[in-house]
Fold each of these.
Amino acid sequence: MLVDNPPEGFLRIDFDRGRSDPTFNSHIGNLYARRGEKGTRDEFVLGFRVRPHMCNPAGGLHGGMMMTVADLVGTMGAGALAGVRKFLPTVNMTFDFVAPARVDDWVEGRAELVRVTRSLIFSNIYLTVGDEKILRASAIAKIPSGDGPTFGKARLARDEAAAS
Amino acid sequence: MSSIPPGFRELTEATGFAAANGPWFEKIENGRTVRAFRPGPQHANPLGIVHGGMLAAFLDSAMGAAVRQALGRHAVTLRLSLDYLGPGRIGDWLQAEGEVVGHDEHVAQVRGRLYGPRHDVLTGLGAFALLSRQRVPTVRS
């Protein structure tokens, strides 16, 4: 088992608590999250270490992996910034593939809220390696009416520790 | 449930992300490339339908394949805009295809569509950078 060696403060997201078959978010993993001070650009940061199973034939990080992580940042991340704890289905995403990433790079994803309405969250998303942007995305996520579908089983290891 | 419709071959040459999230299939029909896969539990999101990221990755691959088929050039994705139309169901046979709607020497514009047996799942529009005719992406293991 390779060690991802995440930077200080990142906790692995356990998407499949108590589930026998891993779902996509675990299958592609590992994915990590760090919560920072409210209102700062680091309020919600998703992170992962690039592994060979995330790569394309040219040996760079696969666009599908970038899009998957950006999708999570636009739903889970933007939802966290907006204070919405529901499962948010994605309505639209637009991606610009700005630069490649390589095996062993540590990639981070951050969302910026553009506007939150009663039923939609508009956000901008960047994936970065260090100071370099590798993906720019713009996302629209739907806020389901009522309670909507439950958020799922994802939790940070820290929440798990606090709950037990 | 697990049968493969006639004419499709498995993309056994897949590596990395495509291999880890396969198997993916392809057939050439009337000069068009159609890609397909049958999602399993490993492709699901917490709601039990196919993850949007997986759908995006798959449509992207089909649109890239359409560029190769139509123009004989390898291409990398510059930009992709996707609209999610309906859920992709686990166990359904999902197909994706692309159509080159315009291009010059450097960039191709491609329309893409991903659909299941009952309805459209995802529609997309992308710009793909065409690699030089001599240059085939180096494959690293």
Amino acid sequence: MLSIKKIEKICVMLQLSGIMLLLFLAFFFEIVMNELPCPLCILQRIGFLATAFGFLMNLRFGLRPSHYAMALIGALFTSFVALRQIALHVVPGTGTYGQPVLGMHLYSWSFVFSMITIVVTTIMMGVDRQYQNGNSNGTNGNSKWLTHVFFAIVVFLIASNMISVFMLCGPHECPDNPVQYHY
Amino acid sequence: MTLLIFVFLLLAVIFAWIGKQKPANYLYIITMILAVVWFLHHITTPLSLQL
């Protein structure tokens, strides 16, 4: 039977996979559909990556409230930035940024997913039994290689975002409404 | 600035990967502070607000 720690770690991995999927989808829209990210869009990506960092810490150093708090701060930041972008376009006639996907724009989806992350992470953080009987120091055995895979994918995502931002903005401040890569 | 935030976050993840928890924590905090500052800049500058 699965222990509560194992269930929590599986949930952490599922949340990490969801965030990675979102960030890969963002790249799909950027490269394939030529929807270049605005400064607020890039900040939302940073927020999602910060959330992923909290979950990675849980996998690497064991389940701790401080690691969940890191993920929560990242998700909260993402939701604020997304809400700010929604507020920019909420008044009719003020236009939108990018094409809608399944009826909502990407920044609205970003707000929805960050809210889901906040709720799920808070529930996971509140399960006291995962902190009992000492704190396991990270993953071991079968899930250790999975942790390395998750770290490698997050490093790849951050590095590719850096390249994308440099191609888009160079060393200058990113344009509010980018239309093409400058480099 | 955006690029700098990504650099700090990348370093934080790499430090965590190699098992250095303390530097990873500090780099994460720096990343979040920079991100919040940059977000406030994007709120206030286009609207010419003085908070």
